[in-house]
Amino acid sequence: MKKVFLAVAVLLLALISVLVFNTLRLSSKQMQGVAPLPALTLNDSVVSHLSEAIQFRTVSYEDLSLMDSTQFEKFVGYLAKTYPLVHSRLKLERVNTYGLLYEWKGKSTSLKPALLMGHYDVVPVVQGTEKMWKHQPFAGDIAEGFVYGRGTLDDKVTVMGVLEAVEHLLKNNHTPERTFYLAFGHDEEISGRNGAQQIAALLESRKVELEYVVDEGGVIKIDGVSGINQPIALIGVAEKGYTTLQLSATGDGGHSSMPPAQTSIGMLAEAIDKLQKHPFPARLGGAAGYMQDYLAPEMPFSTKLAMANRWLLNSVIIGILEKTNAGNAMVRTSIAPTVIHAGVKDNVLPVEAIAKINFRILPGDSVKTVIDYVKKTIGNDRITVESLKQFDSEPSPVSDTATVGFRSLHRTIKACFPNAIVAPYLVVGATDARYYKNVSQNLYRFMPVRMNDEDLKRPHGTNERISVEDFKNVVRFYIELVKAG
Fold it and tell me: Where would a tag sit more exposed on the chain, N or C end, judged by fewer CB atoms within 10 A?
């Protein structure tokens, strides 16, 4: 028995030694020796321009007949008037009427070009919520140190920030080393298929190869994450896929006084309940694994130990992440019932009940595997499962962090926000960047705006706003990113 205890003790000591060794050998992945930028004073006109841009109601609707094309045309005209150097020195092409593609020739033809992108369409304000706004959503009010309005965070902030930066550089006679493209879509909020997809297809047809692409996506989370109190600059290196499935249950109609054992609504409710009680398997790898690699060295020892030994403690880490909505979305394909239609009268049994369920697909899964999983989990042939296909997209590839583009982003973030920790991450929503996978392997999603948990509710929500200082920082960031190449 003593030999058994001794053997167990030796094995335990060996395991502890391995765990500690793996932890101690973790080294920081943060770029060192980056000098903070000297203060750059920007005129308050940059803020006024954002305010004025918000006043154009460039709202995207899934029903295209609701689109007010005059607002889009006026916005494009406003850009030409506001940024005269951009429009006189850069080549502008209008793609599919409202998509905008600018080309800024660089000094070196040996360097691949880069592309900075965003979108200027916005989501509608939910009817009945107007009174909840402190300032009207399309007034562009500047108050309490903020610019208020739809688009201040999603995503006129990027469009205006990039154009302000380029106009500033042109005024100072700056010519970039590499060629830069600026691409601004007009329908990202309804899939981007008439804007970004067409711009990307045009570049592909011309055999353009981009060194890197930067789109909206991650932000600077100023309230950190568990175990790290510093701001975290999250650079999206991949994004989840998207599909919506329609579940239809058909039952016997008739009078509600003599119902069958299970109505069409009952069948549908049971199916949805099964899906929510049997979520997709969780995985920690790819972009989420990259994130752990970058954050682990900055964490307290106990957390660092777990992160450094994922081969053993993977399930523990996943269990921690699953406890929050954001963490759960990082490690599995998510299931979100969003629409239900059934019944017309309270004493009439509905023949058909329909539900729409939205899935955000983790890299490694696919639209097909989602459909197969749903059918298997429901296990009811009386319920049909149909893909709506309209906005389907597969998960993106994971972009590498050992590239010129990622290093340029990393260096610029460190220069502009010295106390921020940079980390790659998985974007759980969808961005227009996915359309550029055929012209670049290096697609990054980052918006240089400081946000806390409360701020993250503002895009698409009420009281969307950005601070005056934060918008000036956006402009400074793009100035330095272009300089960095």
Answer: N
Residue reference for tokens 């973030």: 413
Distances, alpha carbon 271 to alpha carbons 47, 247, 310, 353, in Å: 50, 9, 35, 12
Tell me if residue 381 is catalytic. no
CA distance 99 to 93: 8
Is residue 237 within 8 Å of 398, Cβ to Cβ? yes
Could you tell me the pTM of the whole model?
Answer: 0.94
Q: Which helix (H) or strand (E) is 99 found in, with range?
A: strand 99-104
Torsion of CA 438, 441, 442, 446, to 10 degrees: 50
Is the CB of residue 236 less than 8 Å from the CB of residue 427? yes
Band of residue 398 on the pLDDT scale cut at 50, 70, 90:
very high
Residue 472: band (very low, low, confident or very high) from pLDDT cuts 50, 70, 90: very high
In this structure, of 279-283, 326-330, 468-472, the range with the lowest mean pLDDT score is 326-330
188 a catalytic residue: yes
Among residues 121, 154, 164, 189, which one is catalytic? 121
Q: What is the CA radius of gyration of the chain?
A: 25
Q: Name which of 327, 153, 330, 358 is nearest 238 in CA terms.
A: 330
Give the bridge partners for 95, in sequence order: 99
Q: At residue 2, does pLDDT exceed 90?
A: no
The percent of residues above 90 in pLDDT, for the chain, comes to 84
For residue range 41-53, what is the model confidence (pLDDT) as tens digits?
999 999 999 999 9
Which residue in this structure is represented by tokens 């990082």? 330
How far is CA 80 from each of CA 38, 95, 96, 154, 209, rounded to the nearest angstrom? 30, 16, 18, 21, 28
Q: Could you say which of 141, 167, 188, 455 is catalytic?
A: 188
Cα distances (Å, whole numbers) of residue 294 to 120, 378, 457: 32, 39, 26
Counting Cβ atoms within 10 Å, is residue 438 exposed (0-12), middle (13-18) or buried (19+)? Answer: exposed
Planar angle of CA 427, 430, 436, nearest 5 degrees: 100
**Sorting pLDDT into bands at 50, 70 and 90, what band is 33?**
very high
Q: How far apart are CA 219 and CA 154, in angstroms?
A: 12
Under a CB-based contact definition with an 8 Å cutoff, are residues 222 and 229 in contact? Answer: no
